[in-house]
Amino acid sequence: MKTYRIPKTDLVVSRIAYGCMKIGGSWDHEPVAPATEKAAQSAVATALDSGINFFDHADIYTAGKSEEVFGRILKSTPGLRDRIVLQSKVGIRFANDAYKSGEPPRYDFSHDHIIRSTEAILRRLQISHLDILLLHRPDPLVEPAEVARAFDALQSSGKVRHFGVSNHTPGEIELLHRHVRQPFVVNQLEFSLAQPALIVEGFSANQSGTGATSGLAAGLLDYCRLHEISVQAWSPVGGGRLLKADTTAVSPLKEAAALVAKLAKTKNTTPEGILLAWILRHPAGIQPIIGTTKADRVLASVKADDVTLSREEWYSLLAAARGKNVP
Question: Hey, which residues does 37 pair with through a beta bridge?
Fold first, then answer.
């Protein structure tokens, strides 16, 4: 698989990454079922065999079980840790976290929570350090100085090499950088043909009644490119809404799914290959994070690395998904 270097790091990563959100099975504290762990092992092995070397986690994924499963895969495969890039995220807390009643779902960028969560990640993965740690979703109560103190401690102790954010706007990133001295090397964002706001807002900003802009999207992609922040796309196939031409999704996604299927047939590839190639075609070098636990879907996805979309095909897909041409 083709690779690129994450700016401001020495990390050379596959253009497509594997997201480990689902590999732990259920989102509870029940033990991982043997069938679930076997499927995870198969999907991860297929990703590795396909050239994927970047694996994305978060401390909350299936209540920590996803990292535990991946930790056992690492332990059973000598030398694997040295061949891959590992990323995880902190900052989201569930309701009644730590089994305390009455606590709401919340975000937490406090120094103690960042440190405690990162150390727990390392224990579950059975590793000494993360290559990248992300702040998962913006915390309105963030104290940037606390984040800076936590990042300094994690970096100086060798527990985290690089840092980034997820779902953050330019303003939120700038606020953190009032105190945080480490460069942010990643911003992980929702982006797909079914959710193209990051690019649509650029040419729709001066068009009334488009309904295309959002607070998150405004100027974000250009900001990341200007500041050499690598963009990762979560949910890159839009939750599967565009994978079948006979989808029951409402128009225009139904028409877009038909075009995806047509191009897949023309280019002798898969619908997943077309959808991910649409993301890869963007000059920002956006890295899709696939999240399937099925080995065959991994194989269908990595075909995107060999697909090239013309400018005309790229815009045709965008127009179909939006139900309108560019203004």
Answer: none
Active site residue 223: no
Q: 152-211: per-residue pLDDT in tens?
A: 999 999 999 999 999 999 999 999 999 999 999 999 999 999 999 888 876 554 444 444
319's CB contacts (< 8 A; 6+ apart) are: 325, 326
E strand segments, 104-145: 106-107, 130-135
Tokens of 276: 């991910």
Q: Quick one: pLDDT band at residue 276, thresholds 50, 70, 90?
A: very high
Q: What pLDDT does residue 314 have?
A: 98
Gap between the Cα atoms of 15 and 83, Å rounded:
15
Q: How far apart are the first and last CA of the chain?
A: 36
pLDDT class of 103 with cuts at 50, 70, 90? confident
CB atoms within 10 A of CB 63: 17
Residue among 67, 62, 104 nearest 88 (CA) = 67
Q: Which residues 6+ apart lie within 8 Å of 125 measured at CB?
A: 57, 67, 70, 71, 74, 86, 88
Q: What is the DSSP annotation of 217-253?
A: TTTHHHHHHHTT-EEEEESTTGGGTTS-TT--PPTTH
pLDDT of residue 247: 53
pLDDT of 299 > 80? The answer is yes
Say whether 271 sits in a helix, a strand or coil: helix
- Domains delineated in the chain: 3-242+275-307 (3.20.20.100)
Catalytic entry in 4, 61, 99, 223 = 61
Distances (CA, A) of 219 to 183, 189, 222, 238, 293: 19, 13, 6, 21, 33
pLDDT digits (tens, 9 = 90+) for 8-62: 999 999 999 999 999 999 999 899 999 999 999 999 999 999 999 999 999 999 9
